[in-house]
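Quarterly update from the structural biology core.
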Amino acid sequence: MNDRAQALAAQLIRNFHEAELTTFKREPLYESRYARLARGTAARKLGASYDIVEPGKTTCPYHLHHAQEEMFIVLEGAGTLRVAGERLPIKAGDVIFIPAGPDYPHHIINTSDAPIKYLSISTMEQPEICVYPDSNKFMAEAGIGGDRPFEALRKVGEGDLDYWHDEP
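Predicted structure, tokenized:
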């Protein structure tokens, strides 16, 4: 490839099979390996990650977004989509659509005996309010890029909280 083609490829193309994985673990429920795919690309309103979740684990607390829509594409394995108070079985080949709003709190749990691998895609709308129904918290964030500002997390009637406060 010429220099221009190489520069375009660097801004527009990511291969999740080749992406460097980061390991995250917080006992007892949270454990994954992931790669944030959109960082460093030309994308400004799309987020994407590749997630591998071990049996019995999840990546994040049960939550909902008031601005962002999300889509999950299950590549390998099986598990459970906890959504809107229900538990739905999911498997390789499933494409999951989560609209913004209070009707769709969600997270994916690996309820199988093998890793589940999926792509997470979101619209990265800002400003965003996330609500965590299990712990009665919310997080407000504004601005594009960087990591989520966990210091902006609040619980009804309380001040600043750690992101994991009251989560299992």
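Residues 128 and 141 are 5 Å apart (CA to CA).
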